[in-house]
Model the fold of this input.
Amino acid sequence: MAAGAGCIVMDDGHQNPSLKKTLSLVVVDGETRGDEWPFGDGSVFPSGPMREKLRHGLARADAVVVLLPADAPGVDPELLEAFGDLPVHVARLMPAAPPPKGPIVAFAGIAKPWKVERALDAAGAELIDFAPFPDHAAFREGDLAFLADRAERSHARLVTTEKDWFRLSPEWRARVLSWPVKATFEDEAGFQRLLLGALRAHSAR
Done:
C-alpha cells in the first residue's frame, strides 16, 4: 500500500497465515476428469493433491469460484454439495479474441495444458500440432527452435497462452503469438456485488 495501491489481488495465498485477507476465494476446476476430480482421494500433500483438508480450507473461504471450459455443461450437483453453504460463483474460460487465422502450432506450460488444446479446437482454430509442457516450464531454446521449425514446415504460426508468452525472451515474443482468454461469470453482477461489498466493509473499518 505504501506504493499507492488501493487493493491487492493475490493468487495462491489461501494457505499463507501471515496475510490478513479482506476476501478469500477458493477457485475449483469444475470439470470432471477421471479420478483426479475434483479433489483426488482427499489426501494431503505429499500423499495426495490437497494442500490441506477440504473442510479446513473452506472454513476460511468467503466464496467459491467454479471454473469451467467454454464448451462444458453446467456444474455437477455433487461438486456443489461439497461446498456446503458457501456462495458459489460459476465462471467459464472464454476466448477474449478469435484464434489466429490459418494453420497454427501451439504450446503451453500450465497445470493442464490439454485444456488449451481443447479450447483452441472449440474456438475453431486450424491446429496443426500442440506441444504440452509442465506447469511453469522453463522453455529451452532447443524446444522453441524445434516448434518454430515445425511451424515453418507447415506454413503455420506459433501460438501460446498469454501467461506463457510473457515468460518468453523478447526475441521469442516477436516470433510467437499469444491467445488470450478471460473468465466470464454467469452472474457477473452477483460476483461484482461480492467484491464491492468486501471492499466497502474493509473501508468502513
